[in-house]
Design brief:
89 residues, mainly alpha, homotetramer, DNA-binding, flat
Chain lengths: 89, 89, 89, 89
DNA sequence: ACCGAAGTTGTATCAC
DNA sequence: GTGATACAACTTCGGT
């Protein structure tokens, strides 16, 4: 049976169990890396605060710049759509 | 003036501006890394789904294991505290 | 007892029960309105599709314009922050 | 050409452009209304919280009642179908 | 320590 | 039915 979702744990082959375990561990390892980065970011903010910068403002600036990037990506996506549509004519 | 948060941006010294800019860029670089990992995690889930595993369940398992880890760390921290208090370390 | 969260339903005063019921009904009425609007939006898209417009593209355009509005709001929020900060000097 | 989706935007007739614009604006107006209602709902929850009710529980209640309504509608629809099929309506 | 806001994650909806 | 998108719920974080 290749469709693991229909297996109950008892019936799961050793191979399927192993794949499941390795999948979960991969996720956990990735998450660990994510947590580490989040800690780093926090530290940068804490440091900035220590230097007298206003954290709230820096967060706003970062958010604004992120919106800019998002907008640029959206704009590109629309352009792609247009080009695709025109290519279909 | 050492407290940068009270400075008018126009009046900010070139040095302070440079530090602010570099702080923001450090945050953005870190965030990029974070986003990349988040993408990776999504891909692992997508792959697991493709293999027929039930994604919702895997998410639950990962969350539960995370709580367990937190509990274990908490317990260890308390143990350390006790040992330290008792001068046993 | 004014703190309703500590009451169990049996112990809840008639008044508290009444307020809870009216709160839930207010939410449900509001939600009804929301569902109606969502239906309307869907219909507009369906109509546009019937007129030969590419729905996906329209969705993208709407999303892009929404980002613009969000950006403007963020920019205003930052400006407010600056003004507040400067006002504190 | 009646199929507006295949037109190059530059080549789109003024009429088609106008219809597109008005469609987008209708969607945006509707969405504004939706956002307003969503804000209202949030406020009701905030108020309930202020009154000491457990928000999470209220959300559950609302969700359950919504499912019930959906079920009732479903049941009614099936009943209608049967009646229609049997020529009883 | 709590509160409000922000960000993240999980679920449901929708178009294809 | 599947993938993308949007919505809702929950967690986190800075401020009070």
């Amino acid at each position: 049976m290749t469709d693991a979702s229909f297996e109950n744990p008892d019936a799961m082959t050793t191979a399927a169990q192993g794949r499941l375990r390795s999948t979960i561990e991969r996720i956990e390892r990735l998450d660990e890396g994510k947590q580490a980065i989040m800690t780093d970011i926090k530290e940068v903010y804490a440091e900035a605060k220590g230097d007298g910068y206003d954290v709230k403002t820096i967060r706003k600036v970062v958010a604004l710049r992120k919106i800019d990037r998002a907008k640029r990506q959206e704009a590109e996506a629309i352009l792609d759509l247009y080009l695709t549509t025109l290519g279909e004519v």
